[in-house]
Every structure is written in structure tokens, then in C-alpha cells.
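Agenda item 2: adenosine-5'-diphosphate complex prediction
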Amino acid sequence: MKMPKKMKLSYLLNFLGLVLLFSIFVLMFESKIFGTSTTYIKGIFTTACYTIIMVTSLNLVVGCMGEFSLGHAGFVSVGAYFSAITSNALAGRGIPDLLLLIIALIAGGLAAGLTGILVGIPALRLRGDYLAIVTVAFAEIIRVAFCNFEITGGGKTMSGIAKLADFYWAFWIMVICVTVMFMYVRSRYGRTVKSIREDYIAAAASGINVTYYKVLTFAVAAFFAGVGGGLYAHYMTAMIPTNFNFNYSAELLSEVIIGGTGSLTGSVIGAAFLSSLPELMRQFSTYRMLAYSIVLVLVMIFRPGGIFGTWEFSLTRLLERVAGKAPKAQKGGE
Amino acid sequence: MLEIKELNVSYGAVHAIHGVSIKVNDGEIVSLIGANGAGKTTILRTISGLKKADSGEIIFDGADLRKTEPSKIISLKLAHVPEGRHIFPDMTVEENLEMGAYADATNAEAVMEDVYERFPRLKERRKQLAGTLSGGEQQMLAVGRALMAQPKMILMDEPSMGLSPLLVKEIFSIIKEVNKKGITILLVEQNAKMALSISDRAYVLETGKITIEGPAQDLLNDERVKKAYLGQ
Ligand SMILES: Nc1ncnc2c1ncn2[C@@H]1O[C@H](COP(=O)(O)OP(=O)(O)O)[C@@H](O)[C@H]1O
Ligand SMILES: [Mg+2]
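Presented output:
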């Protein structure tokens, strides 16, 4: 009886922390503290939000499941295009913007998730590095296909997507996505997937349907990659399939590895920094991949588990530690 | 309890198991001995559904295992201790045992107490990461995890592999005790002497074929077995 109560408290505390963080952002942007750069900086933060969703979802595959996916951008792409097509089709029917955005994101996510099942079933049945190979091929096929379909712009930029996402909504959508993924990792499902990663044979001997759990996790990851893509589409309002090329997949993967495979906190912080830093140093943006590679090599040498390893941030723990320094009287209360 | 008839299994073009028939009665310990590469592991993996058979029948407790999902086989109360000490290294001893009750968590706590009683060393180390256990302790953990599924029968693949002579003795006496509690055992071993000494009956497997079978005592005295497997 004690644990769930403590967990509820922890979720509540973290939620309050996020509200506080959000208020700071609102205050910062509404008071125009950045002057004329406000819109620009807001944009960077929005980029960070959808990148966080994409990177965290990739970490489900790389960290939780221990498989390499080199084609995550393919799922982002499916989600981006499918959600854009959905919102285009539903535009002008008097659906409120936020609802339309949510419908579009869910549609994009489901399309990407279904694609994930189709890619995962053949690739995850086999052991070894098949997933890496299959996902690269998949992302390339998607890119080429979307360059040729009429509905995705036929190789030209698909523009005129409704601007439904701004930083404020993106922030909360990101929070919801990361929370759900965090809960997935902590759930019975997540533990089962981790046990498969630890020892495939022992897991199978314990009666775990190995393929099922792997495909499920892969589909969940693809779903959220699709939601991230949908957010991207409805923030950028224009896109071209080559945005989601191999480089993009590689970028997402390096952010997972730098942040720490197995740490969602690492993915969140890693994605936030790595997606905004190059943007802040725009004049050097051509060196972005070079900078990534250098950081990646340094991390691999000095912290092979990534910057955060498997550590997860917990506001509750932080507060407990702060409170621990305060007079002891507090402790007896619980 | 378990009946295998005319089983054929292959890896691609390599025909590994040729028409093998094995029968294990309720309450028996039956061992399957044979040299490295004879196909012992393949047979156990085929029984558990981890490897597909080409032809033949595998009936356990009235159920056709060839038509049963591998993940459902443990629910039929047939457990498998795979070759090579497969445990979850980054989980604690206790979490490893909990995984053993994955398919059926009823009575898990009581069963765990039983397992701890049988393996006091696991109880001492219940909060320790399984990857930090010694080889013998890991093997015991693997057996303990199988017991967590409350099986009627356990398939054991070379439980003595890589253990010191003292630990080999211990693990075999554990197998004997487990069997006394009413659990049927199909034991695969290269350590033929030890395996035969605790078994009721045995089969000798040579390059995928059963060449000798009979009561374990007879096999211990069989000239061919003595020469090839007992080093006499
Ligand atoms: N995954 C595999 N792929 C191809 N051949 C295999 C595989 N596993 C086992 N074999 C072959 O099948 C035969 C039986 O192997 P195995 O069942 O492991 O024997 P044992 O357990 O008696 O040592 C051997 O010839 C081995 O080379
Ligand atoms: Mg073997």
C-alpha cells in the first residue's frame, strides 16, 4: 500500500516541477526578455521539444531493448507526412486547432507504429544486427517513395501545412510523450524487454514471447517517433523527404548514445542541448556533424555508457536530499 | 510423461537429429549422454519449441508440443534449464527467481521460500546482482528459476558444465532431491558417470542417433559405454 502512494506523490511532485519550469518559460517569452529574438529562441525550444520525443523513443530501442536502429528518421518521416495529410484533409471543418493537432499527431503516430510492426516482425525475429540493416534500408525506401508520391509533394517541398504547434503546446506534448515512455520502461513490459536484452535464452526459457515483446517495443518507439515527426510538420509547416535522410537518423542515434543508452533523462537533456546548440551557433552549422562526431568519440572514450549512463533524474530524490539537510523533525512525519 | 517419436531436426542442410525416439515416464530421471556435438542440446531445444522439428512427434502430458507456442510450453509445467548458465546478470537473485514465475505467479512467494530452503546460498545473496555470483551459484540460480515455474518436469542441459568436482557432486545431489519431490527430469550430460549414477534409465546419442538405451545400471556396465564414455 505504501509504494503506490509514494509513486503518486512522486508523479505529482514532478508535475509541479514541470509546471514551474513551464511558467518560467512563459514568463521569459511573454515579458519579451529576449527582445526581437523571442520568436527565434522560442523556435529553438520547440525544435528541442520534438527532438526530445524522437531521441527518447529511439532510446527505447537502443537502451531498453539493446538493438540498433539506424533508420529512426524513416518513422519520423512517416509520422510527419501522415499527420500533415490528416490535418490537411480535416482543415476547414471547424475543428479547434489543438484538437486537430492532437488528431493529426495520433494519426501520424499510429501510421509510424504500424510501419514499425511491419518492419519489426521480420527484422526482430532474427538475432544479430539485422535490425540495423533493415532499418537503414527501410528509411531509404520511405525517402525515395515519399519523393515520388503525389500526396507527399512528389519530391518537392510539401508546404502549406497548418501551423498548429507552438512551443507551449509542444512542451506539454513532449511532457506527455516522455512520461508515457518512462512509464512503459518502468512497467512489466519494460522489465520484460530488459530481461530479453540481458539474456535472450534465459528470457525464452522463462516463457517470455521474445519476438512479441521486441516488436511491441519497436512499435511503441516508432509511434512516438511518428508523433515527433507530426510535431515537426506542424511547426515547420513545410518539409521535404530528404530532411529525414540517413544523417538525421545518425544524429538521433548519436544523441541517444551521448546522453546515455538506458537513461531517458540522458536522452531528454542530450536532445535538448544537441538540437539547440548547433542552432545557436548557426554560422558553424556546416560543422554540426563534425562536432557531433568529435563529441561522440570523446564520450565513447571517457564515458562509454553515455554522459548519464543509466541514471535517471528524480525530483523526489532531489527534494529528499535537500530536505535531508534540513532539521530532522521533518523526517519523522511520514 | 514425455514421449518423443521419430524426431528429425536439421540446421539448414545439416541433418542434426535422425529419427530419435525417447520416452520419459512419470517420476523418472532419464539421462541423455553423448559426446560434444552429438545433438543433445538440439533435442532439448526442440522439445521446448526453441528449434523447429522437421518431422516426428513430441507429446508432453497429452499435449502436442510441436503445435504449442514456445512461450506457452512452460505453462504446461515443462521447464528448461538451458546449456551454459543463462541468468539475468543485471538483476538481483530475487528478481531472477521472480522471472521464473513469469508464466504463473500464483504461490510465487511460497515457492520462492521453498527454493531458498533448497538453496540457502541464494537466500543469503538475494539482493546481490546475479552477474556477480560464482559459476556454481549461477547454475543453482538457473535451477531455482526453473523450479519457480512449479514444473512437473525439467529439461536440464549439462548442469555440471564448468563446475569444480565438489560443485558437480552438489548439483547432482540437488537434481536427485528435486526428483524425489516428484519432478520428472530429462538430464543431458557429457559427464556420463555422474549422470548414470543418479538416473533410472539412459539413452546414448551418437551424431544424432540413439545407439544404446536401457536402465542406467546396465549402461554403467555396458562395455561400449565404459569404453567410450566412462574412460575405462
Ligand atoms: N545454430 C546452429 N546452426 C547450425 N548448426 C548447429 C547449430 N547448433 C548446433 N548445430 C550443429 O548441430 C549438431 C548438434 O549440436 P548440439 O545439439 O549443440 O550438440 P551437443 O549439445 O550434443 O553438444 C552439431 O553438429 C552442431 O554443429
Ligand atoms: Mg550441448
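Discussion summary: The domain at 1-77+153-160+175-232 of chain B is CATH 3.40.50.300 (Rossmann fold).
Owner for follow-up: CH.
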